[in-house]
Write a structure and sequence with these properties.
Phosphoenolpyruvate Carboxykinase, domain 3, seven-stranded antiparallel sheet, alpha+beta, single chain
């Protein structure tokens, strides 16, 4: 790539195969991005560079499984994101009982957009607030768990239907959402990423959940939770919702295609960072009473 040798340093190396973390110093970052994942006139060059790296690894009887550029492992197009609605939940120091949501410009905004403990990244679905409200303003807010690598595909093609739900007769397909982000974030629905700490660092966990708007006509009657063990059915999962209303089943026969587009819109990526073992957090204590042995 014709980079000076002092433009690269090895951040750290993880075992399990070998995960090599390289730090690319300014101003060479954009150059590497173009040369590794370029489009248009950079496409042929990027393919040649990847082949060169593969040949280097072949000398050590190794092969490349994947290359991740940047700190984020989600290759989501910038055009799909709406950064004006990026938010995080913070407490007002004047009153610890009040929590407010702020957008990226620190303006107080729709407080219901970001539940406590989560950061919100906006997804671009409309050109402005008026356009959003005219189409989806009256729709219900719900959440859908995801395995992180699928996020870009969901944004570009919609939520995929599933037939693995308890309340679906026969082999009918459906999508399961929840009005509770805590329910949607259970490991059955949402992957937990665990960082491998360096010396002296704490282990952290990360979660990713989609925030959606759902057409009320498609919701039907809410269904009870299906995660708690029988002897723990009285355990409260979310203080804001009854256990009897935590699953919304959107059947595929309400749409004309495999992807349910006319009834569900994903308009936010919700991210949570957990700085301790998840089961040690009071808000996640209910996980112990489910059939989730590991995460």
């Amino acid at each position: 790539m014709q980079l000076p040798t002092d433009s690269l340093t090895i951040g750290h190396v993880e075992e399990s195969g070998v995960i090599l973390h390289l730090v690319i110093h300014a101003p060479y970052g954009p150059i590497v991005i173009k040369q590794m994942c370029g489009r248009g006139r950079y496409n042929e060059l990027s393919m040649l560079n990847i082949q060169t790296i593969q040949k280097c690894c072949a000398k050590f009887d190794s092969r490349i499984h994947s290359i991740v550029l940047g700190k984020s492992t989600l290759p989501i197009e910038k055009s799909l994101m709406d950064f004006i609605w990026n938010k995080m939940r913070i407490n007002d120091n004047r009153s610890t009982n009040n929590t407010y949501g702020f957008d990226s410009f620190d303006r107080e905004n729709r407080e219901s957009m970001c539940p406590p403990g989560w950061k919100r990244i906006g997804i671009k679905v409309a050109n402005n607030d008026a356009a959003f409200d005219s189409k989806w303003g009256s729709w219900h807010v719900a959440y859908h768990g995801t395995q992180g690598p699928y996020a870009p595909f969901i944004l570009t093609s919609g939520l995929r239907v599933s037939n693995q739900q308890y309340f679906i007769p026969g082999n009918h397909q459906a999508i399961c959402l929840s009005p509770s982000i805590e329910y949607a974030a259970h490991p059955r629905y949402t992957r937990l990423w665990r960082t491998v700490p360096n010396d002296g660092e704490k282990c952290r966990y990360y979660q990713l959940v989609f925030q959606c708007r759902v057409n009320p006509a498609a919701v039907g009657d809410p269904k009870p939770e299906t995660l708690l063990q029988d002897i723990h059915k009285t355990t409260r999962i979310d203080k804001d919702f009854r256990n009897e209303e935590l699953e919304w089943i959107i059947q595929a026969n309400t749409a004309t295609e495999e992807h349910i587009r006319d009834y569900i819109v994903c308009y936010g990526l919700m991210i949570r960072v957990i700085d301790s073992e998840p089961n040690d957090l009071s808000i996640l204590n209910w996980w112990k009473h489910t059939n989730c042995d590991e995460y």
